[in-house]
Amino acid sequence: MPTIRKSGGVVPFYWQGKIVDPRDDAFAEALAPQRFRTIENAASEEVSVGWVTPADPTGDSFAIEDLDGGVGTWLRFRIDKKSMPMRWLQIHRDAAEKARGRRLSAKERRELKDDLIDQLLPRVLPTVALVDALLFHERKTVLLFATSKTAKEAFAKLFFESFSLPLELADPLQRGLRADLSPDQRHALERAEPVRWPNTTQRSGAARDAASPLPQAGAAEAATSADAQEESR
Amino acid sequence: MSADAQGAESHGFLGEEFLTWLWFRWETEGGEFPLAGGRVVGVALDDFLTFAALTEDETEQTLRRGLPTRTAEARTALRQGHRLRKARLLLAEGDRQWTATLDAPTMTLSGVKLPDDAEECDSDADRTADRAANWLALHEIVQSLYGAFLKERLQDDYRTTGAESQAAWMAR
Fold first, then answer.
1. Which residues contact A196 (CB under 8 A, 6 or more apart)?
2. pTM, whole model, 2 decimals?
3. Could you read off the pLDDT tens digit of each residue along chain B, which spans 172 residues?
4. B171: in domain
5. How far apart are alpha carbons B164 and A8 in whole angstroms?
6. What ipTM does this complex have?
7. What single string gives the DSSP state of each residue in chain B?
8. Is the Cβ pair B81, A174 closer than 8 Å?
9. What is the largest CA-CA distance in chain B?
10. Which of residues 10-39 of A touch B (CB under 8 A)?
11. How far apart (Å, rounded) are the C-alpha atoms in residues B11 and B17?
12. Which residues of B touch A11 (CB under 8 A)?
């Protein structure tokens, strides 16, 4: 059994609503339909994404005990990508052009590429990426141990397909909405505007001291706050 | 699917204000942050800082190695009103210490190093459980610090109190 990583990047997500308790067999059953399916022998350019477990990278088994991550549930998914090796395509094109003594036409290049795909892709092994995540059921939080856009999107899609709930990135707004804030503070959070810190290199000290730290954006916040109070009356 | 960072686009500035506030509090109050439940977390900025550009046309400034918070370039950036966009942080609670680079607009952590595995870990399962607890603790520390920042930031009088104090520190 491998161990979960102790370094690297992490992207937290939240969800709203209920998902199956990870201690129930139904949780593993929810993962199984989106299990990883191999493209090892595929004869076309393909990407395959699906759940596996830390103990079994094939996607063939989903035992609950294989998902044990201590305080969390250890999820793992696999992204395989099979693509035509472009260097081989270039080598074959160069050889064909040398044999004919001229550049290939667009149609000939396309036909050559199609032939090579049929010949070479079944022999090409896909690239493999295993991505881990830790799910904390009661906190409705999942930590994804990858920061690439591809991994984030693939994970969010898999999660949605398995649990029918969208994931929300734990950005400054979503984190704030989950902080222990009063209703007024939540309202202010949603309408917050940046503080424009004084640009002291363009102001004299006296002018800076005399100036109110309230920037224009502050006036906008005050206005929206007043509007909200008006609406609530 | 809502994995796209809508909140990072609309509220990314709050992440930058949060990171700059951590620096301000570290320098002016010593970097110990009391959190809920009587917990105390230590925070310091390490050897990597990136300042956000004030406008889209401006160049981002990155300072690496040594003590970038002590450099004249960093002070100049603060005086010009730049917020921090990224920084490498040292976070400590009890005898556990994490290092991580926080990308403020998305609140994503990269280059994380967890505390050493506990000595009593005898098996891979023990190590996994220990690390999972440390990943969760790191997430919750960042969340708690951000919550503490927001409670101050979202006060009605913030711009005449906390923002004023921070403005004075930035202008030093």
1. A215, A216, A217, B81
2. 0.85
3. 444 456 667 899 999 999 999 999 999 999 999 988 889 999 999 999 999 988 777 888 899 998 999 999 999 999 988 999 999 999 999 999 999 999 999 999 999 999 999 888 888 999 999 999 999 999 999 999 999 999 999 998 888 888 889 999 998 8
4. no
5. 37
6. 0.91
7. -B-S-HHHHHHHHHHHHHHHHHHHHHHHH-SEEE-GGG-EEEEEEEEEEEEPPSSTTSPPEEEESS-GGGSHHHHHHHHTTPPEEEEEEEEEETTEEEEEEEETTTTEEEEEEPPPPPTT--SHHHHHHHHHHHHHHHHHHHHHHHHHHHHHHTSTTGGGTHHHHHHHHHT-
8. no
9. 55
10. 10-13
11. 10
12. 106, 108
Q: How far is CA A122 from CA A34, A57, A126, B32, in A?
A: 24, 21, 10, 59
Query: CB–CB of A199 and B8 under 8 A?
Result: no
A147: which chain B residues are within 8 Å (Cβ-Cβ)?
108, 110
Whole-number CA gyration radius for chain A: 27
C-alpha to C-alpha distance for B154 and A192, rounded to whole angstroms: 8
Residue A57 has which token pair?
Answer: 């990278």
B17 found inside a domain = yes
Q: Which domain holds residue B130?
A: 6-165
Give the gap in angstroms from C-alpha B4 to the nearest C-alpha of chain A.
7
**Cα B10 → chain centroid:** 19
In a domain, B83, yes or no: yes
Q: Give residues 72 to 101 of B whose Cβ lies within 8 Å of A.
A: 76, 79-81, 83
Q: What is the CA radius of gyration of chain B?
A: 17
Nearest to A185 among B80, B81, B151 (CB): B151
Domain count for chain B: 1
